Amino acid sequence: MRRRASPTSSISGRRGAPPCQAEIPDLAAFYAAHRETVDFYAVNLQEEAPAVQKFLTERQAELPVVLDAKGKASTLYGVRAIPTTVVVNAEEP
């Protein structure tokens, strides 16, 4: 991921988890409103790209999704429950 010198918001979750499903409209709205000033990535845990794309298409949600099949992002940011929102300072990894 290439980042700008701006805040970054990252969400970790799975499409099958009801709380993750419920927040998708809000996440898509946030992305649409702030896409020019905030580097935003939704991080999907342990799912394949076709299933994730189908999920987003069905919900008419436009937002960038990074697949984290091995859970590296979750480990890096100490995610213990989903969904989790992580806001990273522009100077942090």
Which features would summarize this protein structure in a list?
alpha/beta; 93 residues; four-stranded mixed sheet; 3 helices; 24% strand; globular
Concise overview:
By secondary structure, the chain is an alpha/beta fold. 35% of the residues lie in helices and 24% in strands.
How big is the Rg?
A: 13 Å
Q: How would you sum up the major sheet?
A: 4 strands, mixed
Percentage of β-strand residues = 15-25%
The overall pLDDT, averaged over residues, is 83
SS class: alpha/beta
Task: Please write the string of helix (H) and strand (E) elements.
Answer: EHEHEHE
Shape: globular
Number of DSSP-assigned strands = 4
Low-pLDDT windows of residues: none
User: What's the helical proportion of residues?
Assistant: 25-40%
* Widest β-sheet, arrangement of strands: 3-2-1-4
N- to C-terminal distance:
11 Å
Please work out how many helical segments DSSP would assign.
3
Characterization of this structure:
By secondary structure, this protein is an alpha/beta fold. Helices cover 35% and strands 24% of the residues. It contains 3 helices and 4 strands; from the N terminus they run E-H-E-H-E-H-E. It has a 4-stranded mixed β-sheet with strand order 3-2-1-4. Strand 2, helix 2 and strand 3 form a beta-alpha-beta unit. It is globular and about 35 Å long.
What's the structural blueprint in terms of helices and strands?
Blueprint: E1 8-13, H1 18-34, E2 39-45, H2 49-58, E3 65-68, H3 72-77, E4 84-88
Parallel strand pairs: 1-2, 2-3
Antiparallel strand pairs: 1-4
